[in-house]
Amino acid sequence: MIVRKTDAEVETMARAGRVVAATLDLVEEHAAPGVTLSELDRLAEEFIGSHGGTPTFKGYRGYPGSICASPNAMVVHGIPGPYALEPGDLLSIDVGVTLDGYVADSAITFTIGEPSPQAAGLISACYEGLEAAIDQCRAGNRLGDVSHAVQTAVEARGFGVVRSLVGHGVGRNMHEDPQIPNYGPPGRGPKLAPGMVLAIEPMITAGSYDVEAGDDGWAVYTRDGSLAAHCEHTVAITDNGPRVLTRRG
Ligand code: MF3
Ligand code: CO
């Protein structure tokens, strides 16, 4: 069942979304050679708390971090640890904030210093896929239109779309219906309606789209060791088109 939110609920989620966006800004600003992922985690946790929120991920099914920090061939769900960033690393940061009982969820991918041509192409394809999907978030469209938009944009650039991980509805809970694959045919699935809020999150690879779990039970890596990118926004369907609740800047 897809829970539709009232206007007031969407406003609360927008406030959570502003904290998410500001946290991502802060983490990207501080991500530099020699900085460890756990330092970024602590920074994010303090910032979220100082803005009246709680980090949604912490304690979720026992997840120990406040954010996910996934470098290079790690696709998602990296527990921030002692790894120190190096020049040229590609890094995905995922942040969820719960504020007044509602969740917003967003992720970015960037590089430490100058990207390689491959990393630059991968990252821009990921954002192109996300923006194409957001543009489909209109009442009367179907969920398959959103999924198909990601796949079309990403594959046109020659990259792989991870199949085994999906986006999701979001609201009082981080994970609500519907599941949102990043691939599939248009014109199928539930009809989008005002009040639905979707966390759309393309996960894409420079090589094969096959992934495997890491030893800690959380991290997900590309099976072939190729680079991966992940970006995500929380998007409300409104009478006036898509409203991105986690937009930065
Ligand atoms: N954006 C991710 C998701 O929607 C964040 C979950 S990380 C977890 O699944 F640690 F909380 F699971
Ligand atoms: Co998410």
Structure write-up:
By secondary structure, the chain is an alpha+beta fold. It has a single domain (7-244), classed as Creatine Amidinohydrolase. The chain is built from four helices and 15 strands. The strands form four sheets. Strands 8-7-9-14-15 form a five-stranded antiparallel beta sheet, with helices on both faces. Strands 1, 2, 4 and 5 form a four-stranded antiparallel beta sheet that branches. Strands 3-12-11 form a three-stranded antiparallel beta sheet, with no helix packed on it. A hairpin with a 6-residue loop joins strand 11 (211-213) and strand 12 (220-222). Helix 1 (7-30) runs antiparallel to helix 2 and helix 3 (117-135) packs antiparallel against helix 4 (143-156). It is globular. 50% of the residues are buried. The mean pLDDT is 98. The structure holds 2-amino-4-trifluoromethylsulfanyl-butyric acid (MF3) and cobalt (II) ion. Cobalt (II) ion binds next to loops.
Question: End-to-end span in angstroms?
Answer: 33 Å
Q: Strands of the largest sheet, in order across it?
A: 8-7-9-14-15
Radius of gyration: 17 Å
> What are the secondary-structure elements, in order, as H or E?
HHEEEEEHHEEEEEEEEEE
* Bound ions, cofactors and other small molecules, one mention each: 2-amino-4-trifluoromethylsulfanyl-butyric acid, cobalt (II) ion
**CATH class bucket:** Alpha Beta
The count of DSSP E runs of length 2 or more, i.e. the number of strands, is 15
Q: Please describe the biggest sheet, giving its number of strands, its sense, and whether it closes into a barrel.
A: 5 strands, antiparallel
- Looking at the overall shape, the CATH architecture is Alpha-Beta Complex
User: How many structural units, i.e. domains?
Assistant: 1
Helix content: 25-40%
Integer average pLDDT: 98
Give the overall shape, derived from the CA principal axes: globular
CATH H level, superfamily name = Creatinase/methionine aminopeptidase superfamily
Q: Proportion of β residues?
A: 25-35%
Uncertain runs are none
This entry's quaternary arrangement is single chain
Structural class: alpha+beta
Please count the helical segments: 4
